[in-house]
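Reply to thread "Modeling small-molecule complexes from scratch"

Following up on the discussion above, here's a worked example others can learn from. I took a protein sequence and the SMILES for pyridoxal-5'-phosphate and predicted the complex. Inputs first:
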Amino acid sequence: MKRQEGGFAESVREEKRRQYEAMGISGQVYTFGESVLEALQGRFAQIDAVAEYNQLKVLNAMQEARVSEACLSGTTGYGYNDLGRETLEQVYARVFHTEDALVRPQITCGTHALALALMSNLRPGDELLSPVGKPYDTLEEVIGIRPSRGSLREYGISYRQVDLLPDGGFDYPAIAQALGEKTRLVTIQRSKGYQTRPTLSVQQIGELIGFIRARRPDVICMVDNCYGEFVETLEPSDVGADLVVGSLIKNPGGGLAPIGGYLAGKKECIENAAFRLTSPGLGKEVGASLTALPSFYQGLFLAPSVTAGALKGAVFAANLYERLGFCVIPDAVQTRHDIIQAVRFENPDMMIAFCQGIQAAAPVDSFVRPMPADMPGYDSQVIMAAGAFVSGSSIELSADGPVKPPYAVYFQGGLTWQHAKFGILKTVQNLVEKGLVKGDFS
Ligand SMILES: *Cc1c(COP(=O)(O)O)cnc(C)c1O
């Protein structure tokens, strides 16, 4: 019996290797990948344990909110008394342990969700403070750091920023000084975004919020939670954040949500956002869910394990590229607080080859070759690889980065770990074939 099972495992391994070869992964690249993987089993077990915890957390929220079959059919028109929408918002509030939530297909993307949170909770004369350095590129125009029509700045809302220290830590003295009378809202970006600073852990965010609270108990502490959801057992709202905000075509949509954003937090903050999203007086009471609800529920249900698959891909890529001699952020052994993996290539050719490898591994548009292009909201050309079921979804296997020094590619996603693995091997194969990395792995 034992020998038979051994023989079966052996033959699956062999068929698997041949399938990789049939799909363009050389024996050498494949073997290199397997050798990197051997050392990662402990890390993967940890990732699975977090996913297991978060799966139960989501399931518990759905059960306690009494999700029923009726919640899955949407409304049209005004969307009054939309049971599915209201229950889903309660599910999100329970998952994030907040008083309320706003989860809507009318929120078009992460930037929109963040803009909504800021524009609805700030008033003319208020000041916004980022104590963690420059925010995500697209927010520069929302805030008015880069002049833009309709920015907070045009409405008389000022902005102040305190950069992180060179070691990535918080500059507490400068933050204390920047917390002025006008400061009304503090925005904390959890993920590194298009930067090479470290991503903040939930614990670090908690410490920062504690510091701010001790000085200014009245300011709103908001966290841009994009890419961070379900990576840890805690969320920023568990450590004092008044408001957490993110995109449904990233982690919490589980790959199934075709659009949407969420805000979870204090009742007053959510109400402000609802009055801004729809209209003063109407707030949360309108906003038909149309056909979005089944994918929102099912996507949230799958999100913990989808996030785990993406995380395994990020850890695998870090270890593989570090062995090839590249600077990777986070490095091979650092703990993870979001699903993003940056690889610094130092030149555009390698960056492009990497992205073309990711594209070639996609289930959709695998035959397309991505090239650098101008993008609204960004101040340099950007290259993006995504062959996704949901256009632009970055919980699906994707890679992108601004084509400017240090030529870092930001790699993320993978609806399954197996797909992420294949995509990463494909990038190495592409770099080898273009003669951009040497093929003699050791
Ligand atoms: C993706 C992202 C955003 C913006 O989300 P979009 O859906 O691309 O508009 C904002 N902040 C961070 C940290 C992000 O990763």
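What I'd highlight from this example: The mean pLDDT is 95. The longest helix spans residues 293-323. Questions welcome below.
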